[in-house]
Amino acid sequence: MAEAALTDERVEARARKAEDVESIARVQFGGGAAGALMHGAVVEGRPPAYRIVDKEAGQRGMVVPARGRISLTLQGAEVIAEEARNRVWIDDFDLRGDLFAVGVLDADPGIRPGEEVAVLRNEEVTGVGVARMASAEMLAARRGVAVAVRHKASGGGPS
User: Fold this and answer.
1) What is the 8-class DSSP label of residue 38?
2) Which domains are present in the chain?
3) Within the chain, which residues score under 50 in pLDDT?
């Protein structure tokens, strides 16, 4: 697209959509994680509610216009977790709703309130949601919601 800016060529709408969504992902998750999130995926939908879809694995996330950010699905959280970004570890318990601070074992440094995080149990993604505390607060606090969980893996009981 940068080359097209120097010429009078039109940029294909599909390419522009993909670059717009990847730009949001780069700001939100960092370059490596954004590339992994977009790798093998297509961007579908109409502005401003774009969806990131892997034709084999399903939807990875979508741009939420009200937040101006990407909300991840479990598949998207798995991609981000593999890139060692925005992870919160829990003990071996059944994740039934929001994750409270008392249940947090560890968290990647640098997580801020409002960021998308992957919730992991035994190194497996068991949920995804929005951080309500910074990572240091999650580890120090004994009460309060650490992550507002949006999606949980089926059969999320202890193994």
Assistant:
1) H
2) 2-80 (3.10.450.90), 86-152 (2.30.130.10)
3) 158-159
